[in-house]
């Protein structure tokens, strides 16, 4: 008999706690093993039947998903923020609860797939981390000068040809040594950033969708590569509204007392819902990508549409959000169809 088993894994740096349930929800096995490839695979191979495995999204989730997937019927990496907290918390309790939620189909999965874009995703993480490091160094450098009442607005402070001029404005040897070290660090990081970008572009060009994304207004080579690597595939999103939510561009509303009594009959209240801003659970990388693309189009190909929205009383931030959502919608539609951008086929922006 092919027995179905539900396996919950509570993963930590050194150890992983595992609980196995049968179809009736009874615990039939427990184990505490090392968090290593060999230990995890040995345990799974020791289990007979059809195996369904779950673990929480975290640092090791992507590695474990790729490791486990070929050896079981299904792997669900779940969102821990959507698991309600209950009573006592302990490793075995958590593992058993994960297995039970998997058995009852009560988990919210986090997307882990598309082997074809795995390398691209790694290179994107490398590139964005180096860019963030460079931004951090620039902020420290400017803070050093601002803290001494020296105006350092603009970007000339980052120019190697002007370093001596900026150094002369500092009054002590120790402060000049600190600034020098920051400049040297910035120079090294910027070189790494160029190398990371070249590797990213080389990998992105291997994908047919890269040219499709590159044709969309506001989407340059880096932004196209980021969308490809982070989203993976457009077919994981059923509609543009799902994509907006994933990108942090979806408006969140709240309502209460939706129904009222009118002449003894139940009817809907006309009270408008409260707008609570944009959703908070999203991909920060994609939000940055589409918002920066919106800024590019607002001063470029779609400037007239942006100016009309602002002239009609729309705040600039909301006008930029409208453009970002439009770019995201076009991206999803063209990516799904495998077509390049054609202005003639796009509806007027104010109709979006």
Q: How would you describe this structure in keywords?
A:
alpha/beta; 352 residues; disordered C terminus; Nucleotidyltransferase, domain 5; single chain; 3 domains; two-stranded antiparallel ribbon; 12 helices
Low-confidence stretches: 348-352
SSE class = alpha/beta
The gross shape turns out to be: globular
Helical element count?
12
Give the terminus-to-terminus CA distance.
56 Å
The biggest sheet, with number of strands, parallel, antiparallel or mixed sense and barrel status, is: 5 strands, mixed
Strand content: 5-15%
Quote the average pLDDT: 90
Task: Tell me the strand order in the biggest sheet.
Answer: 3-2-1-4-5
Give the % helix. Answer: 40-55%
Supply Rg. 26 Å
What is the count of β-strands? 9
How many domain regions? Answer: 3
- Quaternary state of this entry equals single chain
Secondary-structure element string? EEEHEHEHHHHHHHEEEEHHH
Explain the overall architecture:
The protein has 352 residues and is an alpha/beta fold. It contains twelve helices and nine strands. It has a five-stranded mixed beta sheet with strand order 3-2-1-4-5. The protein has a two-stranded antiparallel sheet with strand order 6-9. Strands 7-8 form a two-stranded antiparallel sheet. α4 runs antiparallel to α6, α4 packs across α8 and α10 packs across α12.
